[in-house]
Amino acid sequence: MKKIIALFTSLVILYSVYHDLTVGVLPALSANSTEQEESSGPIKEENDLFTKKIKPGDTVLSILEAHQQGPLPVAIEQIVADFERLNNGVKPEQIQMGETYKFPIYLKETD
Q1: Residue 73, by phi and psi: left (phi above 0), alpha (psi -120 to 50) or beta?
Q2: At residue 59, what are phi and psi to the nearest 5 degrees?
Q3: How far apart are CA 75 and CA 109, in angstroms?
Q4: DSSP one-letter code for 94
Q5: Contact indicator for 59, 72 with CB cutoff of 8 Å
Q6: I need a surface site. Which of 41, 69, 80, 97 has the fewest CB within 10 A?
Q7: CB under 8 Å, gap of 24 or more: what pairs does 76-80 form?
Q8: Under CATH, what is the fold of the domain 41-111?
Q9: Residue 77 Cα distances to 34, 37, 61, angstroms
C-alpha cells in the first residue's frame, strides 16, 4: 500500500513540474487586454522611440534601463507590449544579435 501511495505522489509531483515548465502558472495576457494596450499605449509618435542594434548580452530591459539611466516608470508587462507593437510582434526573448530594433521612450513620472 505504501508503494502505491509513493507512486501516486511521485506521479502528481512529476505532472505538476511538467505543467509548470510547459504551460506555466502565471496567467497569460488575454487578447482583449493586448488590443486595449495597443489602442491606448503611450507611444504615438516617432519621437517616443529610439532604435538600437543588439550587442552580445543585451536584453530589452537592460537597453531601456541604460537609456532611461535608472529604473523604468512603467510595468514590465507594458514594456513587453510596447516592444512587441513597435517591432511587428517580435517578443523580447527573441531578439537577435546584430539586428536593429525599436524601443519605447518612457517619460519619468513627476510628482
Answers
A1: alpha
A2: -130, 165
A3: 13
A4: G
A5: no
A6: 69
A7: 77/29, 78/37, 78/41, 79/104
A8: Membrane-bound Lytic Murein Transglycosylase D; Chain A (3.10.350)
A9: 10, 10, 11
Reduced to 3 states (helix: H, G, I; strand: E, B; else coil), residue 104 is strand
In terms of phi and psi (left: phi > 0; alpha: psi -120 to 50; beta: otherwise), the region of 2 is alpha
pLDDT of residue 26: 58
Residue 45 has, within 13 A of its CA and on its CB side, a CA count of 2
Q: Reduce the secondary structure of 32-68 to three states and give it as a string.
A: HHHHHHHHHCCCCCHHHEEEEECCCCCCHHHHHHHHH
Residue pLDDT, tens place only, 26-80: 555 444 444 444 444 455 455 688 999 999 999 998 999 888 887 888 899 999 9
Tell me the pLDDT of the chain averaged across its residues: 80
Which sequence spans correspond to the domains of the chain? Answer: 1-28, 41-111
